[in-house]
Design brief:
The complex is a heterodimer of chains A (about 450) and B (about 140).
Chain A (H helix, E strand, L loop, with lengths): L1 H4 L1 H26 L12 H32 L6 H23 L3 E4 L2 E3 L4 H19 L7 H19 L6 H4 L2 H35 L10 H16 L12 H12 L1 H10 L1 H11 L3 H23 L2 H7 L3 H27 L2 H5 L4 H32 L7 H7 L1 H30 L11
Helix pairs in contact in A: 2-3, 2-4, 2-19, 3-4, 3-5, 3-8, 3-15, 4-5, 5-6, 6-8, 6-9, 8-9, 8-15, 11-13, 12-13, 13-15, 15-17, 17-19
Chain B lengths: L4 H20 L1 H4 L8 H13 L7 E2 L2 E2 L9 H4 L4 H10 L11 H17 L7 E3 L5 E3 L4
Antiparallel strand pairs in B: 1-2, 3-4
Classes of the chains: A mainly alpha (about 450), B mainly alpha (about 140).
Chain lengths: ~450, ~140
Amino acid sequence: MERNKTIVGRKFLSLALVSLFVGLIGGVLASITYIKPDFLHDFQGLSKLRPIHVSFVMFWIIIAANGGVYIGMSLLSKNKPLKLISNLQIILWIIALLGIGYSYLIGDFGGREYWEFNPIWALPILIALVLQLVNFIHLAKSLEKWPVYVWMWMSGTVFFLLIFIENYLWLFPYFRAHFITDMTIQWKVNGSLVGSFNQLVYATAFFMMDRINGTKEFKIGSSKLAFSMWLLGLGNMMFNWSHHIYTLPTESYIRYIGYIVSMTEWIIFLRIVYLWKNSLNDFKKNYHYFPYRFIMASDIWVFINVGFACLMSIPALNIFTHGTHFTVAHSMGTTIGINTMILLACVFMFFTPKKIQDAKPSKSLSIVFWVIQLSLLSLFLSLKISGVIKGFWQLDANQSTFYEMMQGLRPFFIVFVISGTVLMLGFFYLIGTIYRYSRINKNQPYESEN
Amino acid sequence: MKIKTIHVFLLLSVLYLLYSLNIYLKPLQVKEVTTVNKFDMTEGRLVWQKYNCQACHQLYHLGGYLGPDLTNVYSKYNGNADVIKGFVKAGIRQMPSFNLSTEEERLLIEFLKETDASGSSDMRNYKVLPNGMIEQDGKK
């Protein structure tokens, strides 16, 4: 019976893994155009491959995050998710993924960056998000006291839906009539959407930590510090987005709000530094438990990325990194290093049969885990260095041509492509492992559900 | 009265909605600075999206990373639309050729004329203020 509780969430996670698979292939193929300019040239190369990569890895995060919410809420709530609603959601997501894939392959664009597909395919996603909210409310009704992760899941679900609608305001000519305001809204949306799915993903991490620690009293979930951090993150989701547009000649106050609110992220960074010894103890205590390793990895990537984010949010430094691969490294570091690691922890926690979870992880699985971390680090550094070089080029009084600058970055792009390929293979191995787990011992309980 | 989590959440949400509304109303408040036809410009932006120019190019350094920033490409070629049309039609290096209709070409040029008129994306034109903020040092 317990096993049935997480079945809806696991369906979402399975679909999300398919999206990750597609996104990874798109990413590696897209990266090849950086070192082999005529690669798939007749297919329109990067203009099709980049959206395939970006959209599908983003859908991996969004769908898996929704799966995490279902798993968490189903285990906490006395109610069961409404089956009709969740099944309809899955069907809508499948329609959207197929439609978007088709839209990209035939070059039927029309949307904006990250959402380049024909906007018609946003409709099934929108309905699926509304249904997610309906089921969330149904599950939350039976909870008397909300631990912090329920608040985070709620705020992430509500705001993701609202901002997703805002994402399509450009369909009305009124919002496109003033170019700078249009760009401001576009990056308001992009910044806040990331913030809202971060709420969903980080909540799942807190939820898993409480379960790993085995406390029924929601040790993390009821801590005042966790609530403070949630509200700090929520405030950043709402108001820090303008650190993306310091160079855009929009109103000063908009840029100052982003600057000031972004600086509060130093609190998060300093907290990590202050608690590093506790984190180290947690790492040692739980290292044997394979899903935990992904949480450990995400903690380290949080430290690295929040540190860089704090620096990049200072406009005087942002001028060196804006529009460069330094920013791409940040996106990769956060979406892969933080979001993907947390979601993989969730996947392994709720897909691995108890018998296997009790045993020490196999040597090959351990090796793949570290190969993924090292290849991500190498990809991250190659982009960071490329970004620094481009940043100085952007400010150089005797600027060479764009082509010459890009040629100079070629060695780093080669490292980027190799690291990306290894990373993809590592993730494929993990996806294959999960597929095997889901096929064997179907009737075994899942440790995490006990 | 004890401040509860829900109060803080609602306060933040209301502030966020007011802030959003303020931004949505900007097009009504901002005076037009260009001579570009508003309809052409808004439709030109759709041409930019239809051909997914953003996959490789940037506007104000926001967008793809394979090609150069195009915010000021119009003035870079001294307003010579034929040069820009030539790049689009023939392609260059990684850039494939795009088969735009004559009307789409015109709308795209109008859009790029507008982005150019909106300011400069050249990082060398920014100055750093004592508080760490950056400002465009003159329009171009």
